[in-house]
């Protein structure tokens, strides 16, 4: 099996508030062959949201983006797959919800995006951003150690899926 890549996925607050959207997106993640390496529910505070979206600080939509991201809990996942970064972005669809609904209605943003701000999900856009974003939001998770010690089990699918925590654990047996 080819090497696995890691990406950071966020299900944004309006998804967590709607059990149907949450369940449907989780189902899509699993049916698209992503493994969930880390998983947590997390409410962004102002400081973390601003650090996370620092590159957008001069954009017209920055304030509404920070207000939205701090408005309630999000789900954060570290996802593993071959070519995970691009595959997750393909599954999410275009950034702009209305474009997604028109051009790619089957994507996550096409189905669950409510507006350009409330566009359902986030995904890292490069290996460098994935490392930075995972480092910020999962400070105890060591990407290098994961590749060295755990990737093998994920590649060989020696895993148990914990439904309740929405995470894959290694089956060392
Ligand atoms: P992404 O990588 O596809 O999430 O897109 P960006 O990194 O360009 O933007 C980060 C986030 O800012 C997006 O996911 C949206 O929530 C928000 N955003 C981006 N462009 C716009 C816009 O034109 N209007 C509004 N209201 N929000 C935007």
Automatic annotation (TrEMBL):
Entries under PROSITE patterns matching the protein: NDPK_LIKE
Listed SMART domains: NDK
Ligand binding (ATP): 12, 61, 89, 95, 109, 119
Domain Nucleoside diphosphate kinase-like: 4-145
Pfam families attached to this UniProt entry: NDK
Gene Ontology molecular function: ATP binding; nucleoside diphosphate kinase activity
Active site positions: 122
UniProt KW keywords: ATP-binding, Kinase, Nucleotide-binding, Transferase
Biological process, per Gene Ontology: CTP biosynthetic process; GTP biosynthetic process; UTP biosynthetic process
Family: Belongs to the NDK family.
Cited PANTHER family: NUCLEOSIDE DIPHOSPHATE KINASE, NUCLEOSIDE DIPHOSPHATE KINASE DDB_G0292928-RELATED
UniProt name for this protein: Nucleoside diphosphate kinase-like domain-containing protein
Organism per entry: Pyrocoelia pectoralis
Source lineage: Eukaryota, Metazoa, Ecdysozoa, Arthropoda, Hexapoda
């Amino acid at each position: 099996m080819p090497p696995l890549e890691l990406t950071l996925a966020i299900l944004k607050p309006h998804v967590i508030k709607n059990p149907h959207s949450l369940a449907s997106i989780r189902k899509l993640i699993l049916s698209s062959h992503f493994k969930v390496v880390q998983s947590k529910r997390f409410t962004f505070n102002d400081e973390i949201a601003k650090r996370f979206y620092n590159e957008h600080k001069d954009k017209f939509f920055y304030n509404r983006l920070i207000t939205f991201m701090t408005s309630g809990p999000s789900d954060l996942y570290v996802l593993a797959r071959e070519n995970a970064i691009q595959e997750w972005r393909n599954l999410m669809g275009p950034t702009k919800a209305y474009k997604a609904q028109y051009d790619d209605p089957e994507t996550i943003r096409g189905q669950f995006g409510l507006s350009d701000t409330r566009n359902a999900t986030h995904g890292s856009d490069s290996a460098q951003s994935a490392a930075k974003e995972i480092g910020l939001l999962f400070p105890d998770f060591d990407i290098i150690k994961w590749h060295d010690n755990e990737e093998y089990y994920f590649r060989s699918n020696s895993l148990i899926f914990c439904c309740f925590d929405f995470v894959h654990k290694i089956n060392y047996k």
